[in-house]
Structures are given as C-alpha cells and as structure tokens.
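Researcher: First entry.
Model:
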Amino acid sequence: MPQIFGKIRNVKSSLPEGHSLFGQNVDDYPRHHFIFPVMSPPPESWGLQVQFAGRDEFIYGCWRERRNSLTFALEFVREGVFEYIANGQRYECHPGDLFIVHPGADERMSVLTEYGMKYTVSMVGGSLMSLLNSLNLISVAQFRVRREQKVTGMFEELFALLERRPAGFANELSVRAYALLLELSSDLGSGEYPEQLVRIVNFIKENFNQPLTIDGLCGEFGISSGSLFRLFRTHIGKAPIDFMIEERMRAARSFLLESRAPIKTIAYRVGYASQLYFSAEFRRVCGMSPRDYRKKNMQM
C-alpha cells in the first residue's frame, strides 16, 4: 500500500445549506486544471452547457467527499486507480473507466495508487436531467469505455475549445457536450448480447408497465429461470426483475420531469397499482421520493 508523503490539510467548501463538499489535501494536491467558461448567458441558463472541464491530478492520501451533490460530472480515469463510494456502493475505477457524479448523490472519491489523473467535465442546464434519462445515463455510476480512443479525443477536443475560446465557442461547446453524452450512451449500450437476451430485453422494454414475472418470461421465451438469471447476471450485471424496475423508474423520471401528471397517475402508467408501493420503489432506486425528485430537478 502506498504511503502518504507530504503535509496533510483538511479542506471544506462553502455551499448552500443541505449540501457539503470537504476532503483532504496532501501538499499542493489535488491539482485541478479546470477551465471555467465565461459566457453570456451563463452556463446554467442553457439547455445544456459545460460548467467546467479539465485534467484532475491526485496523489495517495487525497480525497473528496460530497453530501447531496450539486454537481453532475463525467470523470474519465486516465492514470492510476480511483475509488468511488456512491450512496454506499463501492466502485474501483482503472484507466479507461468512467465514473458519473450525479446531483443529489452522497459520494466519496480517493486514489488508491501513488498518483492518479482523470479527465473531468461538469455540465449544467435546464435539459440536463431529461437528456440523461433519455440516454439511459441517469442511473449509471460507472462503466468501462469501449471506444476509449474516440472518447479520449472528445474530452481533449472539448478542453482545447475551452482554452482557445474562439468566436461563437459557447454554441460549439454546448454541441460538443451533447455529442459526448450521446457517445457515452452509445458506448454503454454497444455490448454484444446473445440473440435470446436481446429479444428478452426488448420485450421487457416494450412491456415494462405490464405485470411481468420470472415465470411469465420463462414461459414466453422457453427458458429456465436459472438460465434467465445467468444471462442477465453475465451480460447485464443484474437480475431480470431489477432490470425491469429500472425501466419503470426511467419512464417514471421522464413523466415526472416532462408532465404535470399526479404521482398516482404516473405510478399507474409505469405499472404500479399502488402509489404507496411505487413511491417506496422510487425512493429505493432513486434515493428520494417522486415528489422531491420532481421538485429538485425542475429547479435545476
């Protein structure tokens, strides 16, 4: 295990009530090489815009912790090994792994090696949450980037644009932010599934609001429950029912953000006869009640 060499200093940022960001520095690390775009209107007034971006260097002993995060950020590991603990779950990220910091999350990040470096892009905007939901990124914490060279180039081109700031750069920056999210969504979904799993996944996506059961899926596709669970665990990393619930929650988040429909109506639309049960499931998966989710993200 690496040793801590250098002067340790505790740090804390001043944030609005209910939110906190604090951590530990070692000498002059972490080194945040972030560029903050200066534009009119400001980034948060756009549908989607970059709030800041750049390289981020850490050494062993440095850490940061957020409570009820105000930040959405893409953190693409380039050197070393980082550890993230988000909402109680641990993730170990190696070069080529991408971690997503979500608003509202409780998250701690540290480096497990002597040195670590990651590319960071933080985004804001009135359309951000809807975009993340439609691109199936809203509930993703970490994944391995398959098209690593292309994604690396997109991060670096975005950094270069921020440094040059040519005329009209703000519009180009917004376009590049959207292109990066689109590429990551495509990369995340680009794994090759067995044909039978593709058919089952598509069936669940088309019928998520129906009373699906394991027995029903096995009968529909002529597969044993053991084989069904193995397919999902091997290729998707979760049980089929958990996958179905995530599809329901994805649709629920869209309805909450894009309509004024009552919670009871949304519960029924996504397959729940009981508003109470729907709200409990939503809180378990999303970390807050449907009403709080709508209120919080409508204000962003």
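Researcher: Second entry.
Model:
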Amino acid sequence: MHFRRFMKGVALPVCIALFAAQSVLAQANGSLGGSVLDPTGAVVQGVTVTIRNEGTSLTRTTTTNGEGRWKATVLPVGKYSVTFEKEGFKKSISENIEVEASVPHSFATTLEVGGIENVVTITSDQPLVQSESAAISRQITGEEVTKLPTSTRSFTGLLSSEAGVSSELSPVGVNGNGNISPSVNGTRTTSTSLFFNGIDATNITSNEGSLNDNIAPAPETLQEVKLQTSLYDASTGRSGGGNFQLVTKGGGNDFRGSAYYYLQNKAFNSNEFFLD
C-alpha cells in the first residue's frame, strides 16, 4: 500500500517531468555533424572535434568514429565554431556555423597534412547539408523579424512569406496582440501547432490550433522563427497543418540591449476604401 502511494505521489510525477524535459530539449535545439577526410579523400578516425558556441562559450567535445563521422546533438540555436584536431594533421577551425531549431545539419571537412601547431581557419559559411530529414522548412532570423516591417509587430505577419502559407491581413483596428492564424497547404487555420522555446503552446488560450490571441513576444526578443510546412516528424508536429517554432534570444558574454518606442493610433491610418 505504501509502495503504491509512493509510486503515485513521487515516482510517477518524476517520470513525467523527465519525459517532459526530454521533449523540451528535443524541440528547442538543433544538431551538427559531418565527416572528416584527408587530402586523398580517405576518412580520418579518432579526430577530436570541439564545438563551441560563439555567444555563450558553451563547449562540447566528441571524436570521429571508424567511418570518420561525428555528431553533436542538443545544441542551443546560435552561431558555432568547430575545431578539428589530430596528430599529423593541421588544426582546422570552421567558424560561423549556424544551428537551427529541430534541424540536423552536416558538413564535410578535409584536414591538411602537417603539424598540429599549424592552424587552418575557414571563415566563410560552410555548405550545410540537411540530409537526415525530409521536412520542408524555412528559418526567419531575429534580424529579419525586427527589420521587416509588419503592421502589428507580430511574428505571424511574416509567416505567409513561405510557399503554401496564406493568411488574412493583420487586425490593425482592434486592441489585441495583432496575431493572425495562417492556413498551411489549404488546411484550416486551427490546424497548426506552435512551440515556444520547445514548449507546446498550441492550446495556451483555447482548445484549438489557432495563433489568434496566442503568445506574441516582442520581435526584439526573438532569435529565430521556424516554419515547417510538411513532412516534419512526430517529434515536432501533432497537427495536420504547419508547425511553427519560436526561439528567444539567450544570454551571452557581452552586455547588450535595445530600446524602442512604438505607437499605433487609428487616427494616423488612411481612411477605409468605402468611407472615402
């Protein structure tokens, strides 16, 4: 009897919390991987691969396997540098590698023969290949969210820029959050799902998948908006329409901030067509 009470009161909630934490980690992060080759095209095993977040200095280390491949999962979104080291080869550093939410990326690296004290730095963008998922998606960066004009300063005003996504005009004449709920590939506007930093926020205010009257973070706080319109897997989609993911900015080593003033008044808007 006491054991049953323990299982219901302690063990079961702990298991649920661990499962929920795993789901959050799977949703709000991305992954990097790839292969390491020598100048002849042969795979190189035993290469030490160090992945470092350029904003927070978060560091992960792994090694290439017998097939010369490596992978790092559960990486917070952001810019990374990847360092490859092995005795007999020059150290190689790839910079400005971007990790996106729920998107596994991979790229190939060729090590040059030489002393490890010699460093080869690749500063141009690496050609990232997304070959582990058939999902059709698009990323809207935080810079695009703040610089592209929207009538209500809502991220939902940019969702219709993706092929297959349609929506009505933003509600500028009402005192609300300015959200609009798009239709993805002809599905209902209530058939979408929304994740906020890995947490399912689809039904945060209603028992449907509409984005109207849902969360509306300030554009300055967003680091990434991810649109997945089709072929996404079960870990991110539970609705028949699209899957939208919001990732807010995280902390860094530098102190930064922004200030803005926004005013919208109907008196400043142009008159309606039928009232002219």
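Model: Note on the second entry: Confidence is low (pLDDT under 50) at residues 10-27.
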